[in-house]
Amino acid sequence: MGAGKKAKNMAKSTKGKAKETTGKAVGNESLEAKGRAEQALGDAKQTAQKAKDTLKH
Question: What is the pLDDT averaged over residues 28-33?
Answer without folding.
Answer: 96
